[in-house]
Amino acid sequence: MGRRTPKEFRNYNAYHDRGMMKWVTAYAMDELVKGIDQNRQEALKNNPTLPQMTPEEIDIRLTEAVAFNRPVKIQVHEKDKWGRHTDAISGLFLGALSNGRLKIGDHWIQLEEIRHITVLHDDKWFHVTPFKEEVSRVEEPIIQLVDEFSQDDSWIE
Asked: How many domains are there within the chain?
């Protein structure tokens, strides 16, 4: 019989690397390009300043949104560190509290923070075109009669 070597268990979790990060600069090119594009879009973003609405106008728009179950888009009195207006908050108007807080989608907003509110209207299904470009019509082939064809009673073998 052959000689057997003793079986030895090595704990794989006890492996320790040299303690430095490897390949820190190795990114996939697609990931890098997407990151650059996102940064460029964020830098060039410009949210226009919409006119200040009165509380009565805001109330009318919120009533319309509730009556027709429409989402709203709200610009608040808030600017980022570069002095641009922050992105608008969109969502369904879900209700209000007695202290002036409104529930828009997942956000709570104070009534005094609202600068402008817009009720969003979805397009009707019959106004939406499924194609971005006009489809060109394909010309139908012209049918021509053949004069050489004869229809007599003779049998061809």
From this structure: 1
